Amino acid sequence: MSAFRAACVQLRSSDDVAQNIEITSELVREARALGAEFIATPENTTLMAPDGGAKLERSFSEDADPALPAFRALAEELGVWLLIGSLAIKVSATKTANRSFLIDAKGRIAARYDKIHLFDTDPGSGERYRESNTVEGGRRAVTADLPWGRLGMTICYDLRFARLYRKLAQAGAMVLSVPSAFTETTGKAHWHVLLRARAIENGAFVIAPAQGGTHANGRQTYGHSLIIAPWGEILAEAGTEPGVIVADVDPAAATSARSRVPSLSHDREFEGP
Length: 273
What we know:
- The protein has helices spanning 17-33, 52-58, 67-78, 162-170, 184-202, 251-260, and strands at residues 4-10, 38-40, 81-90, 96-103, 109-114, 120-124, 127-130, 142-146, 149-153, 173-177, 205-208, 212-214, 220-222, 226-228, 234-237, 243-249.
- The chain is of the alpha/beta class and 273 residues long.
- A six-stranded mixed sheet has the order 5-4-3-2-1-16. Strands 8-9-10-11-14-15 form a six-stranded mixed sheet. Strands 6-7 form a two-stranded antiparallel ribbon.
- The protein is globular, with a radius of gyration of 17 Å.
- 45% of the residues are buried.
């Protein structure tokens, strides 16, 4: 395991797929110019539609999605590992998968992860979300080996399910990705504390690129992309505007945190309640 520079690309995506690909690519290039070797983009990188039905209408099958060849070529050109936080991939006439793609430095798809936990909530301020109406939930946790250590892949609402992160960490993940489009309401209340908790309790780096600001369809997302160290320190944080943050990630710090507090090996079975 060796140290590397990571970047989060923060976006304010619209329902214009081509425009979102162009903006994302520009920011990925900016991150590379800052020395990043691993670059992550948010959930819904190329499509923030007004509702699930509109997203379904504008989505593609994996073979037909125009973003994948563009981002694969970009990763190869720049020689970077690129995590596309998620794309809406059509898997049936009525459902998409909320799918994260890890692309290696030669432009190959190294791993895929379909979001397991779907955002069916009423968080307040008149908001109502039913992701499961048009999204097929994933069923498999995913890790992937980077040149610098093992990555555990998650997406947004997964963040509230600590058991998933425990499993990923116990499977050797030193870095946890949490690409997100957190709402303004829930982000203000929970974003920082949940991400820091996942880092601390698992002794892992957390890389969490986010959507931020008021989108063309009126939806508000919280922004504040974060890179967090295994002891809970915030290494880099964005505001609400699109842009790039970078931080140096040393997997040895995860090893150190886990030796100082070896809780990953202290799980015990118990009875009740």
